[in-house]
Amino acid sequence: VAVVGPGDSTDPALLAAAERIGAGIGGDGHLLVTGGLGGVMAAAARGAREAGGSVVGLLPGEHADAANDSVDIALPTGLGQGRNLLVVRAAEVVVGVGGSWGTLAEIALARRLDRPVVWLWGWQLTGPPDDRALVRAVDPDGALATVREWLRG
Amino acid sequence: VAVVGPGDSTDPALLAAAERIGAGIGGDGHLLVTGGLGGVMAAAARGAREAGGSVVGLLPGEHADAANDSVDIALPTGLGQGRNLLVVRAAEVVVGVGGSWGTLAEIALARRLDRPVVWLWGWQLTGPPDDRALVRAVDPDGALATVREWLRG
Amino acid sequence: VAVVGPGDSTDPALLAAAERIGAGIGGDGHLLVTGGLGGVMAAAARGAREAGGSVVGLLPGEHADAANDSVDIALPTGLGQGRNLLVVRAAEVVVGVGGSWGTLAEIALARRLDRPVVWLWGWQLTGPPDDRALVRAVDPDGALATVREWLRG
Amino acid sequence: VAVVGPGDSTDPALLAAAERIGAGIGGDGHLLVTGGLGGVMAAAARGAREAGGSVVGLLPGEHADAANDSVDIALPTGLGQGRNLLVVRAAEVVVGVGGSWGTLAEIALARRLDRPVVWLWGWQLTGPPDDRALVRAVDPDGALATVREWLRG
Asked: D115: phi > 0 → left, psi -120 to 50 → alpha, else beta; which?
């Protein structure tokens, strides 16, 4: 399961939500895949780690030590924003937390690659055809419920 | 200048718009960069080629012969959807024509990488902060006018 | 630590050597990074797994299920041979086992990126300047001894 | 046709050879693909440009202005050494001029991807099976003769 969201966010509600979602994923025994840096990525990783889960961080730069403290396996890719594609491909389900251009890029790419997406507090889109594989969540528990349903799927 | 849009579109109005935009770019002497395949990509390339311009096609697959007939320089990348990042990076200005998940992924990535974007007949987004570098166009000539303004910029 | 080598090899001595090197790496508690497919990659992964270590497989294709049975974390990259760069970047030390064009490409890239390399039963090169970070091993235990020395480094 | 070689070389004989090879390729009307930076890449590009040919530069960084002065089409990839794969994939024939780890990595990758290679003043390899698609040249004209033969092929 991948969690994507703004790496520079300092919004306490957003970070708390990401941490709770990470804890649910890690507590269920699923591997958490993230971009390995700060903000939402670090909060989700912290939650997963504390819940006993494992965290992979796919870093944009060339050095593993840029990873946040909760990443178990830090893979520096040197691909810049190209690492986003790897995050999405590595996941069976993608969870978006909050909105930013980078987050939107990952979510759109996930849908392009047929990964189902849950988006908590994301941007609204008018235009896409009805898409049952892009679900809006209104709170972290709702997001987790959808993730669990899909993974049972 | 990059033109991005659905590669499987057969909508005559969309393809005519892409061709007209391509013709404007090529006629102005700018290099057109596209993903090299069909639909909007092929229509824009045809327009640029007929107007005397040059067209680069950055292909997702491993073989140059997948390029449409109007590509002058076909570069097979073997990167799959990862080639979208190259299309956006190669451009000073990105023009979106129509909506699809792939198109949205490229436009969001372009904004993430600070490329200005004109989007003709695209999806609507509610959420992003005011962004003067993402302009909506209502017809091909309007899109071209914005592109020209930015390139003069 | 990354182990690289021919993915199509069926040479029993080569595969046994790869398995023994994998076992040493895994038994020491280091993460093994490989290309995730067959031949030398699968043998090294099996050794590491049986010794209690963890194995990351960075796959060239788009589907995780192409990974060999001993990979704990299978990351499909969709980058084709571009995944080789990720294998090398992810490692502090690269071990080559046997010779092939792909193996040579990874070893040369590792040296280009300043990763130290031990090469067991590899091809001979005449031309490079003296390079203390490319060591030839004559047996698996010698390769492991060099890896251990560098990681203590 | 791609020309690869050390980007930091200041060896007059090597640079003169690269320029002559570039001139042959450009004069024949073939597109020259290079990594777009200095040394052998710049010399080959200069030769091709002066002979009336076109030059594509696939740059490792994110900015087109890092390209040498003779590049017609500068494509910043942001992929670091990952751009080497694109150089090789874009070419039907690869010409190596001189030796370095980066050059060897590109040549090995070219052979892995079944591109034929001519290598002028390169390193010697002992180990690969007989390979009629890796030819050693002893002077620039010999390298060009082989390139022309293959392209007629």
From this structure: beta
Closest CA to A100 of A122, A128, A84: A122
ipTM over 0.85: yes
Give the distance from CA A94 to its chain's centroid. 6
B80 torsion bin: left (phi>0), alpha (psi -120 to 50), beta (else):
left
**Contact partners of C by the rule of 3+ C-beta pairs under 8 A?**
A, B, D
Q: How far is the C-alpha of C62 from the C-alpha of C75, rounded, in Å?
A: 9
The structure tokens listed for C112 are 């280009």
Where do we find the tokens 């390079």? Answer: C131
CA atoms of A53 and A47, how far apart (whole Å):
9
Exposure b/e, A111-120, CB count within 10 A at least 16 = b: bbbebbbbbb
Asked if B104 lies within 8 A of A108 by C-beta distance, the reply is yes
CB-count burial class (<10 Å; 0-12, 13-18, 19+) for B66:
middle
Question: Which of B33, B43, B48 minimizes the C-alpha distance to B86?
Answer: B33
CB-CB contact of D82 with D102 (8 Å): no
Amino acid at A151: L
Report the distance separating Cα B36 and Cα B61, nearest Å. 10
Mean pLDDT, chain D, integer: 96
Which H or E run includes A134? strand A134-137
Q: Which amino acid is at B107?
A: I
Q: Can you read off the two tokens belonging to residue C120?
A: 């067991």
Q: So what's the pLDDT on residue A153?
A: 78
Q: How far is C52 from chain D (nearest CA, A)?
A: 33
Which candidate in A34, A56, A73 is best for mutational testing of the C interface (most C CBs within 10 A)? A73
Q: Which amino acid is at A71?
A: V
Distance of residue A87 Cα from the nearest chain C Cα, in angstroms:
9
pLDDT digit string, tens, across residues A115-147: 999 999 999 999 998 889 999 999 999 999 999
Q: Which residues in chain A have their CB less than 8 angstroms from residue C90's CB?
A: 64, 75-76
- Does the pLDDT value for residue C153 go beyond 90? no
Q: Which positions in chain B touch A108 (Cβ < 8 Å)?
A: 101-102, 104-105, 108
Quote the minimal CA–CA distance from C16 to chain A in Å.
Answer: 27
Q: Single out the residue of D68, D75, D24, D73 nearest to residue D48, CA to CA.
A: D24
Token pair of B111 as six digits: 């904004």
